[in-house]
Q: What sequence folds into this?
């Protein structure tokens, strides 16, 4: 979505006769560049909160020792994105001491619930200093004054105060030429920051944000010397953005709106590979890359569990295989006792997440869902906008960062009961059953514009098909696969048909995801085997392919389509397919489908493309 | 109309809440509605981000109209490009 379009929508809402736009807040995540965020945040300050949806109000005051004009608009955007409608009071330049000490200051009269104190290095450093001891005593003096002001302010106003660690400007640091001197300066500075952090541990209403530590993770410059000298702006807009993001997380924690549940996918999220196909010993998990990246995901998930976050699973898999892996795989960190509820089945994930919310009796707005699949993340984002969705695309080593970055689970403090929460919810989940009502997944599938391309296997696609046949255990109708030689023979023969198919949707193309081995007989065609990657399972792709085979068989003049099926302990997911497509059970592991009248198998939401078809004689 | 002009007019529009179409090259900053030195800094930040350039602050504040800013951006781009 275009930045301009979003800004125009916000501008529309500032007009006197504006109509509510509840979808706007969800679309704000498309704004990424800071000037656009600044403008959007400034404009949103003029929009009545009721036009934006159901939001929790919060009064926030911003005061400080320097000019930070970007913090208010950036904070507003970040808070609105978390369901909080802030009323923000911004004090004038360098009003900190007056704001905190005077009971009649404009800030005190505003009556904030949260007061943000923005500090910069020169407020602590004296204009002239020659030796580090003198600096130390001056910095300590300043800090002690600040500490006293904050203490008196919280007692008088009842407002929570957020202080932060203060990065030291490189100009100050490089001003000292001796390495020894720099070390001494660095230590004085760390003592100051340590004292600032200590305020949060000493005073109930004071909290601290370790800004210096967040900046380590951001590729930004602390200040623009021109804007510092011209306008006393001690932070670049990028630093303002880092601060505003973390301060908004603090505000969410302050209002008790932290997320409570982390719903995790399994394949390629908690381990590498597809356990149903690769097997228990074939998944990537362990001490070597990429297995160690997945182990780290598990370790961090368990760390969240120990701090009170409820873990749940939503995975398209055979439950028995997953149970076995979770209980017995030697390299796993996460174990059944860590997981409060599971939805391991072949149902759509939005349906499963609603089911988990019912089981755990927790609101969907307290859920975070993490999955590597674009399909699943878009489905959940569209179907349940209240759920925070984390798309774990890219390298598995980055999964942990992606999970942590949103600060979704940030709370003010954790207690002993947080550690016991999983057991509590586990018991609750076991008592409740899934509610079976669902319809919207079809709307989603319709919106995907799924295109299934079918063609006869050729020199290029045949190796991939053979490999797919060997690798696929779940959607594999016989549990075995045709060897390469036999596949080649069949592909070359006019009595047989070997098809491969590709799938694409509006998110991209999957390439070859399956194939079919067919032998042609006088009065019927036999599907000897049908394999498909379970990545595209439950989207109607398999139905579309069988529709194509049935139509092709019908036009060659045969009266029925037959299909072989052999049950294995891995292919339960596929077992329901032929009956679902209208086949009847016949003796000896065979299914049969009459072709008169023409069976309707394919769903209306897929488009079939047939490439390079040879005549069936 | 140059591409730089369109982008600059967009940013001026964002900062002043005026429709970008109404911003002409000879529009003087000090005659734009609600123009303050704070708006000038917001515009500077926006321009520097958008075009990945760094303007000389003293020259920037000496610029009188939108056309002058477009020229300054173009020359800064040449220097950095």
A:
């Amino acid at each position: 979505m275009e930045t301009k379009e979003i800004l125009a929508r916000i501008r529309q809402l500032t007009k006197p006769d504006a109509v509510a736009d509840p979808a706007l807040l969800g679309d704000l995540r498309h704004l990424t560049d800071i000037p656009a965020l600044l403008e959007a945040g400034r404009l949103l300050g003029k929009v009545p909160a009721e036009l934006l949806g159901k939001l929790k109000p919060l009064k926030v005051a911003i005061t400080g020792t320097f000019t930070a004009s970007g913090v208010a608009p950036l904070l507003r955007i970040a808070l609105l994105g978390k369901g909080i409608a802030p009323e923000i009071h911004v004090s004038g330049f360098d009003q900190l001491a007056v704001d905190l000490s005077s009971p009649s200051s404009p800030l005190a009269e505003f009556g904030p619930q949260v007061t943000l104190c923005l500090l910069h290095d020169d407020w602590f450093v004296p204009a002239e200093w020659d030796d580090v001891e003198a600096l130390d005593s001056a910095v300590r003096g300043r800090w002690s004054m600040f500490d006293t002001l904050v203490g008196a302010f919280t007692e008088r106003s009842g407002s929570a105060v957020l202080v932060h660690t203060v990065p030291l400007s490189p100009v100050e640091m490089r001003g000292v030429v001796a390495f020894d001197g720099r070390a001494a300066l660095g230590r004085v500075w760390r003592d100051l920051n340590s004292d600032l952090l200590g305020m949060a541990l000493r005073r109930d209403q004071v909290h601290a944000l370790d800004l210096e530590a967040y900046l380590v993770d951001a590729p930004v410059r602390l200040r623009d010397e021109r804007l510092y000298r011209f306008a006393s702006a001690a932070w670049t807009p990028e630093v303002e953005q880092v601060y505003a993001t973390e301060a908004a997380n603090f505000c969410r924690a302050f209002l008790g709106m932290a997320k409570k549940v982390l719903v995790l996918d399994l394949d390629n999220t908690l381990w590498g590979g597809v356990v149903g196909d690769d097997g228990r010993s074939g998944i990537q998990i362990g001490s070597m890359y990429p297995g160690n990246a997945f182990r780290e995901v598990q370790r961090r998930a368990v760390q969240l569990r120990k701090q009170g976050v409820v873990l749940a699973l939503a995975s398209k898999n055979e439950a028995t295989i997953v149970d076995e892996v979770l209980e017995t795989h030697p390299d796993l960190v996460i174990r059944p006792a860590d997981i409060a509820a599971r939805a391991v089945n072949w149902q759509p994930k939005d349906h499963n997440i609603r089911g988990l919310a019912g089981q755990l009796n927790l609101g969907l707005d307290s859920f975070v869902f993490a999955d590597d699949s674009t399909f699943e993340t878009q489905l959940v984002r569209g179907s349940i906008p209240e759920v925070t969705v984390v798309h774990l695309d890219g390298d598995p080593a980055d999964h942990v960062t992606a999970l942590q970055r949103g600060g979704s689970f940030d709370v003010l403090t954790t207690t002993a009961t947080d550690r016991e929460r999983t057991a509590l919810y586990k018991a609750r989940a076991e008592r409740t059953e899934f509610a079976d009502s669902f319809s919207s997944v079809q709307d989603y599938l319709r919106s995907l514009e799924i295109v299934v391309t079918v063609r006869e296997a050729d020199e290029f696609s045949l190796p991939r098909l053979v490999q797919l046949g060997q690798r696929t255990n779940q959607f594999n109708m016989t549990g075995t696969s045709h060897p390469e030689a036999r596949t080649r023979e069949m592909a070359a023969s006019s009595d047989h048909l070997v098809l491969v198919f590709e799938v694409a949707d509006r998110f991209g193309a999957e390439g070859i995801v399956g194939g079919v081995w067919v032998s042609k007989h006088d009065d019927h065609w036999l599907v000897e085997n049908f394999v498909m990657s379970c990545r595209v399972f439950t989207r109607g792709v398999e139905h579309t392919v069988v529709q194509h085979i049935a139509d092709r068989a019908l036009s060659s003049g045969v009266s029925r389509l037959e299909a072989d099926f052999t049950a294995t302990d891995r292919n339960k997911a596929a077992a329901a397919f032929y009956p679902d497509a209208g086949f009847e059970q016949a003796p000896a592991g065979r299914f049969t489908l009459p072709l008169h009248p023409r069976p309707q198998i394919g769903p209306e939401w897929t488009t079939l493309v047939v490439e390079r078809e040879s005549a069936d004689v | 109309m140059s591409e730089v002009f369109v982008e600059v007019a967009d940013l001026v529009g964002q900062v002043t809440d005026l429709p970008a179409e109404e911003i002409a090259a000879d529009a003087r900053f000090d005659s734009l509605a609600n123009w303050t030195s704070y708006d000038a800094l917001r515009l500077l930040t926006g321009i520097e981000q958008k075009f990945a350039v760094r303007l000389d602050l003293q020259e920037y504040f000496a610029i009188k109209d939108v056309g002058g800013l477009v020229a300054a951006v173009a020359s800064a781009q040449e220097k950095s490009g």
About this structure: Residues 433-438 of chain A have pLDDT under 50 and may be disordered. Residues 449-611 of chain A form a domain with the Aminopeptidase fold (CATH 3.40.630.30). The two ends of chain A are 52 Å apart (CA to CA).
